[in-house]
Amino acid sequence: MSSVSQETASPAASDRPLAARLALGALKVVGLVVYTLLFAELFIRLVVHQPILPRYVTDTPWGVRGNIPNARFWQRTSEVTAAFHYNSQGMRDDRVFPLAKPAGVCRVALFGDSYFAGFELKYPDTYAHRLEEALRQRGYKVEVLNFAVSGFGTAEHNRTYEGFARKFSPDLVLYEWHLTDFDDNVRSGLYRLKDGQLQPGGATFLPSISVQNKLMKSSAYRFLADNSQLYNFLRENLARYAKRALKVVNAKAAGDEEGGGAGNLGAAVYAKASPYAVSLSQALLDQAKASAARDGAGFYVMEIPRPVSRTQFEPSITQMSPQFLGTLNLIQPTPQLTAAGRPDRKLYLEHGAQHLSPDGVGVILAASLDRIASDPRLQRCHGDPS
Amino acid sequence: MLVAYPAFLVVRRHLTLRNIVLCLFSYVFYGWWDPRFLILVAVSTSVDYMAALGAAGKLVSWTDRWKAAAWLIGVTLLSLLFSPPGNLWIVPAAFGGTAAVLGVTALFDRMEERRRRVAWLCLSLFTNLGILAFFKYFNFFYESLHDAISLAGLNIPRLGLEVVLPVGLSFYTFQAISRTIDSFQGRYDPQYSLVNYAAFHAFFPQLVAGPIERAWHLMPQFERILPLDMNMVWSGLRVFIWGLYMKLVIADNIAPVANQVFAGHSDGSAGAAMAGLLAFTFQIYCDFAGYSNMARGVARMLGFDLMVNFNLPYFSRTPSEFWQRWHISLSQWLRDYLYIPLGGNRAGVSKTYRNLMLTMLLGGLWHGAAWTFVVWGAIHGGILVIFRFFKIDDVAKDAPNGPKGWVINIGLWAATMLLVVLAWAFFRAQNLGEATRVLQQAVGGLDGYSWATFGPVISFIFPLVLVEAWQRWKKNIEFLNAGPFIVRYTTTMATLLAIIALSASQAQPFIYFNF
Question: How many Å apart are CA B106 and CA B439, to the nearest integer?
């Protein structure tokens, strides 16, 4: 009986015009794709809730990424919702800074990655804003200019300083150091070490920026980037593998047989950087210090340690030689974080990308404020507390 | 697989070519780790090719013997080509060994049939168990002997022989032995193609961690062209994906909890120890059953059918049911080639108990050369004896339907699981002291029972328990292959997404690769 009905049913199906069959097939494929995407979005939201941390970056005339001028967007995690606004100079600030420094005002230029950029933080909670507030409260007329861009390493800070930031005549330059900088410095290929000497490498480091520029013109893409957990999940994972591959390629090109070391693979895998990555990073910090000194600016480095737990924090800059570190104005807030750490106190956020919490920013601010405030270059800007 | 699968698809309709390709890829797969150990696979292949024919009472011509010898010498030379330098001594050893075996088999020809068949069987047992004894148990027995003699105040030198255990040795030697015994006992009729047998012997999906296949089930599949369609490929892929999920998402994510407890890095509470034991209970299951599923999935994508090796073992109500569901291919091997030949349950109560204990002791020792495995086997043997003595298996069989039956079944299941979980302490521990410490910690109080302790384990095993409850209810162990298209598509997609999103950041090696 069933074979008879099959025989009668199948000619009827094949009797349909080719166009109708093709249309039906296409409809099924489209339906399946839509179903797949909706299901995957729902699955990610329910099972592995993703932080939505879009990067609004583009290319710059100085050959590295920069924040998209005048961009406005949101970052959302289960712990925080933060509005972002970049000014027309690509800084996370509502003000626009003239190149010429106002009379009697000192400038502090911050260079860093997503930590200094204030990812997962509302603007008033960012280190840059709080540093400026704290200095003003102590009577300094200062402007803190935040040149941080997510994903940056020392090499990119140096390019940004030379190509852009030094035009603002900063009095102090403060570099953030994070474990990922070992990787970032090798990966960018902007500089290489040859016979122990720092050499220029690639003219630019703009990974996937041309694609990103095209995509960002589409409001549908921006909607996805700002709202889809599936998109953010895929982007983070693909970027992690791409970054790792790029690091290995550039490390090999520079003659580093260890491929830069294991470094940060984006999960909980942390290991020692390769000797090449350490030497390159030292040379880049040396270069930054020399550039600042040439311009008469003070140069500081502040490490953001990696949280091992709520009470344990691990420095990474200590992989560099003690002799070299002795030549830096190094601010290491690890002891202060350890002293402040308690099982019931979150110094780092835990449901996003482990950025500093407002509480954590407070601790590193306290650890750095006296050093910065006492720098002789800022004393000319000291007046009555505002 | 990216290279092997297209090549297989091209040649799959030509039997000899297909088996050559399968054999070649299996050898590459195995030799990738250390090409020298391919020689052991070749020794076992060559000897058992002849031995099964001889044990079955078939003519083993000199052509067959030269073919087997050429296979061994050929694989030896090829493997040495890809081995590090310094192994040339293997060449004369291989020639010498081959000549010796051929010489011994020449003696077989002078024997009358029954004795000749026994002689061929003994050759297989001697070769496979000899390889196993040397590579797996030499250090263990020598060290144990050394310690025993030292206790008596005497002194023998330590040999300092660092014998490395080749991956999968216990699996492929047991598979080879079973084929020869089955041939001897007339349960299997061995054929004359060496290529077919070599492909069966080294079949890469199950070479390194089983299942330990029976020749009568798998070998005929190497002697004919197998049908293969897209349904089989998709179905195999889904079985593989489920195995991958078990391994990467469950086993690897809960492994650190067990590692911490056994390394003595937990907070020392009873809850932490129980969480560690629970974690290892599911780690070992998902690690091994996951591999078995992956092996079955890959084999099905090639058109082959491998036996089910795990059938929801943690739903067992009694230890004997557990052993009918856990590592089924080994349990059946031990039953057929050890327990039954010892007399099974046909020679009286006390001998049944003796046979159970011996079988489980050797089963424990099969897993590794350490006293911890012996104790683990002894515990399981003891549990089987106790359940049999009190006729608890019969209580489970006769459990009535309805609420009373539910109470009996749940009670038996809870008791069995508790014993199984506690016994895993010896399987996991590096030494008896470590196992004792963890067990003492686990039963030493009621502290540390909190969501913070158990959450990291339960959150990963809970979805598995739900799926397996469904599998048991529906009597269908292929979860991802059940239901209409949209259901299969959705469950597969969810599993894949879980693998991508939840895989452990640090992959753990397969535990059973050590055995």
Answer: 56
Each residue's pLDDT tens digit, A50-86: 889 998 999 999 999 999 999 999 999 989 999 999 9
How many CB atoms sit inside 10 A of residue A81's CB?
12
Answer for the pair B342, B360: CB distance below 8 angstroms, yes or no: no
State pLDDT tens for residues B162-214.
667 788 888 999 999 999 999 999 999 999 999 999 999 999 998 878 799 99
Is there a contact between B497 and A268 if contact means CB atoms under 8 Å apart?
no
Amino acid identity of B59?
L
Q: B502: which chain A residues are within 8 Å (Cβ-Cβ)? A: 47-48
Q: Token pair of A353, please? A: 């990308």
Within this chain, do residues A95 and A181 fall inside the same structural domain, yes or no? Answer: yes
Tokens 């009905």 -> residue: A5
- Provide φ and ψ at B5, rounded to 5°: -65, -50
**Residue owning tokens 């960002």:** A216
**B369: left (phi > 0), else alpha (psi -120 to 50), else beta?**
beta
Is B367 in the active site?
yes
Is residue A386 domain-resident? no
Nearest residue, CB atoms, A47 vs list B489, B498, B505 = B498
Question: Based on the domain organization, do A329 and A351 belong to the same domain?
Answer: yes
Long-range contacts at A94-98 (CB < 8 A, ≥ 24 apart) = A97/A143, A97/A145, A97/A168
| A-B C-beta contacts closer than 8 Å | 28
Placement of tokens 């909190």 in the chain:
B450
Residue of A nearest to B492 (CA): A36
Between CA A68 and CA A93 the distance in angstroms is: 13
pLDDT tens string A255-311: 776 665 554 444 333 457 889 999 999 999 999 999 999 999 999 999 999 999 999
Q: Are B490 and A39 an interchain contact pair (Cβ–Cβ within 8 Å)?
A: yes
- Whether residue A145 is contained in a domain is answered as yes
The answer to whether B98 touches B69, Cβ cutoff 8 Å, is: yes
Query: In the prediction, which pLDDT does B163 show?
Result: 67
In angstroms, rounded to a whole number, what is the distance separating the alpha carbons of residues B456 and B436?
Answer: 24
Which of B490, B498, B501 has its CB closest to that of A233?
Answer: B501
**B290 contacts B209 by C-beta, under 8 angstroms:** no
Contact criterion met (CB < 8 Å) for A36 and B493 = yes
Task: Kindly report the pTM of this predicted structure.
Answer: 0.81
Exposure class string for B105-114: b at 16+ Cβ within 10 A, else e = beebeeeeee
Tell me the H-state helices in B430-484.
432-442, 451-474
Angle, nearest 10°, between helix axes A358-373 and A127-137?
50
- β-pair type (A106-111, A81-85): unpaired
User: B448 with B269: CB under 8 angstroms?
Assistant: yes
Residues of B in contact with A344 (CB under 8 A): none
List residues bridging with A200 in a β-sheet.
A191
Classify the C-alpha dihedral A300-A306-A310-A313 as positive or negative: negative
How many domains in chain A? 2
Structural domain that includes position A163: 48-381
A183 CB-side CA count, 13 A: 25
Q: Which of A36, A43, A267 sits opposite B505 (nearest CB)?
A: A267
Q: Which of B14, B201, B217, B367 is catalytic?
A: B367
At B163, phi and psi to the nearest 5? -90, 120
3-class DSSP assignment, residue B444 = coil
Query: Where are the alpha helices (H) located in B202-269, listed in sequence order?
Result: 204-207, 215-218, 230-244, 252-262
Band of the pLDDT at B34, cuts 50, 70, 90? confident
Same-domain check for residues A85 and A27: no
Give which of B407, B146, B436, B468 is closest to B282, Cα–Cα.
B468
Q: Token pair for residue A267?
A: 């999960």
CATH number for A225? 3.40.50.1110
Structure tokens at A270: 């942390």
